[in-house]
Design a protein that fits this description.
This protein is an alpha/beta fold. It folds into 2 domains: 5-145 and 291-306, Rossmann fold (3-Layer(aba) Sandwich); 149-284, Rossmann fold. The protein has 11 helices and 8 strands. The chain has a 4-stranded parallel β-sheet, with helices on both faces. The protein has a 4-stranded parallel β-sheet with strand order 6-5-7-8, sandwiched between helices. Helix 9 (233-243) packs parallel to helix 10. The longest helix is centred in the N-terminal third of the chain and has 18 residues, at 54-71. It starts with a strand and ends in a 38-residue tail after the last helix.
């Protein structure tokens, strides 16, 4: 298909204290979450004066990607729409329709397959097209890219930098703690999320010669009785300290593309404070963000669809299909008290 635009789709986040509660109400619409829980999460944003960094990080990504595409002879205009905050996806779809866009590729800011990281964004896009009405552009999502060499090389570079920052006195037995967003077991059991994370972990540790590592989860937000992926990052760090499993911890948030609110609060605040109390030296690796290899990877993923470029993938799982199988990554059944995500 001949594509005439790229649509960047992300979660969205507030950019002032006044926007925090309206944003969270958008995130929680239709869910039976107690208001006190929402106010607890709001405090995470207020800790940073109500400003989630995710919107600015998407702006930076778009700027870098425009330059990358132009340098390689690509002239696709780039649009941006969010699931939960401005610019809202439906408004962006109306803009694209008004501009005469007919066929667009969508880059979603999630590298892995799961309901919340893939299928739900496809549903968001479909609703936005319905809201825009007749004449809205068709939109095809770019595949999951957890094992794309550009993504992994960018993550490798960030992790290598963090390893170099561990104090000399603590380098005897450093453990690399890979983190990703926890999801309900009912969701993870119906998709390849964990196996993809394990593959990314294996490939990164292999190339960097890391022998002491672990994959853990963060940002759990579901009802207490609902089982989610474990171990939790804080529980794991306590175990590392009590059992003497490492002289230092390097936390690598490979499940995230940018240093947004969950990374900043759950790792740079909560995990850091815990490590300080445990006297466990900790360094946090950066996310891939706008690393040149990551921006190059997005261009290559676009070129797979526009000029039939090679479908690049490392490891044993191969390149994900462009079109997911019907029924893949189904939504989890919600308990009486629904889960709440704060991915902005």
């Amino acid at each position: 298909m001949n594509y005439d635009a790229l649509l960047v789709v992300s979660f969205g986040g507030p950019e002032s204290r006044a926007e925090v509660l309206p944003f969270l109400e958008n995130v929680l619409r239709g869910r039976n979450v107690p208001r006190e829980r929402m106010l607890q999460v709001a405090e995470h944003y207020y800790h940073f004066d109500g400003i989630s960094p995710i919107n600015q990080q998407v702006r930076d990504l778009i700027t870098a990607l425009k330059a990358e595409l132009e340098a390689h002879g690509q002239s696709l205009p780039i649009y941006w729409g969010n699931r939960n905050w401005h610019p809202m996806l439906a408004d962006t779809m109306r803009e694209m329709k008004q501009d005469g866009i007919r066929n667009a590729l969508a880059f979603v800011t999630s590298a892995y397959s799961s309901y919340s990281g893939c299928r739900q964004y496809c549903e968001d896009i479909a609703r936005a097209r319905d809201a825009a009405g007749e004449g809205a552009p068709s939109v095809d999502k770019i595949r999951a890219f957890f094992n794309h060499p550009g993504f992994l090389e960018a993550a490798q570079d960030r992790l290598a930098q963090a390893l170099s920052e561990v104090p000399e006195s603590a380098r005897e037995n450093v453990q690399v703690v890979y983190t990703a967003h926890s999801i309900p077991l009912s969701m993870s059991n119906a998709c390849d999320y964990v196996s993809q994370l394990e593959e990314a972990r294996r490939l990164l540790s292999q190339v960097l010669g890391i022998r002491n590592d672990a994959l853990v989860y963060q940002s759990r937000s579901g009802a207490p009785g609902q089982p989610w992926l474990e171990p939790d990052i804080l529980d794991h760090l306590r175990t590392v300290s009590v059992q003497g499993l490492a002289t230092a911890a390097v936390i690598a948030p490979i499940g995230f593309l940018s240093d947004h609110m969950e990374v900043l609060y759950d790792l740079d605040v909560e995990a850091k404070q815990l490590c300080e109390s445990l006297k466990l030296p900790m360094v946090r690796a950066g996310t891939v963000g706008v690393h040149p290899r990551m921006i190059g990877a997005i261009r290559q993923l676009i070129e797979e669809r526009t000029v039939s470029a090679p479908r690049l993938a490392l490891g044993t799982l191969g390149a994900r299909p462009d079109v997911c199988a019907e029924g893949c990554c189904p939504a989890t059944l919600r308990p009486a008290v629904a889960n709440q995500k704060q991915t902005g």
